Amino acid sequence: MEVNKFIKELKKISLDSFFGVPDSLMSDLRKYLEFDNDEEIKHAITQNEGSAIGMAIGNFLSTKKPSVVYLQNSGLGNIINPLTSLASEKVFSIPVLLIIGWRGEPDTKDEPQHDFQGEITLEQLKLLNIDYMILNENDSIDFKQIKQTLDNNKSMALIIKKGYFKQDTRNFDNNINKLSRV
């Protein structure tokens, strides 16, 4: 899917705030958020996934609009506490759309450190009572279902397989932040 179309559809259902930790499977999404971001989109890269959920919760409390949190599935462990102790429909019912890069997807070659997390990703979401959609390269998304789930103050996850987003060949070379070890 082309990222600009994906973002356009999310904006149609009032999702315009994005918080997350960069993931190689979603670098094309991040490139759009960094390079093509318009005035309507709020975007912040966070130091970890739990912080991204915290920012999404704060954003919801101030705007009454759900946010998007993007992460790699290895970051699911970092979001369990804020999701269960704050965002859960059993606590404060703060909806979040999770966009999760599926590293270590079963029956797919990946790095060894991703294999076990890939095996348990869907079970973790089930345990957290989070509905999800798995998105392959040519899948379309039911944005109405996403909106309905979020409108019911329940979080939802989009599990992104490698190659789902159309490749963006731009590089992040133009970083204006100059860090030095000197």
Protein described:
The chain is an alpha/beta fold. Helix content is 39%, strand content 16%. It is built from six helices and six strands, in the order αβαβαβαβαβαβ. The chain has helices at 3-12, 27-35, 49-63, 76-87, 112-127, 143-151; strands spanning 17-20, 42-45, 67-72, 96-101, 131-135, 156-160. The chain has a six-stranded parallel β-sheet, sandwiched between helices. Helix 2 links the parallel strand 1 (17-20) and strand 2 (42-45). Helix 3 (49-63) packs parallel to helix 4 (76-87). The longest helix has 16 residues, at 112-127. The protein is globular and about 45 Å long.
Task: Draw up the topology in text.
Blueprint: H1 3-12, E1 17-20, H2 27-35, E2 42-45, H3 49-63, E3 67-72, H4 76-87, E4 96-101, H5 112-127, E5 131-135, H6 143-151, E6 156-160
Parallel strand pairs: 1-2, 1-3, 3-4, 4-6, 5-6
Helix pairs in contact: 3-4
Strand arrangement, major sheet: 2-1-3-4-6-5
Overall, the morphology is globular
**Largest sheet report:** 6 strands, parallel
Distance between the termini: 43 Å
Which strand-content bin applies to the residues?
A: 15-25%
Give the helix level as a range of percent: 25-40%
What gyration radius follows from the Cα positions, in whole Å?
A: 16 Å
Q: Class by helix and strand content? A: alpha/beta
Number of beta strands = 6
The chain-level mean pLDDT equals 91
Poorly predicted runs = none
Number of continuous helical runs: 6
Order of helices and strands: HEHEHEHEHEHE
Concise summary:
This protein has six helices and six strands. By secondary structure, it is α/β, with parallel strands linked by helices. α3 (49-63) packs parallel to α4.
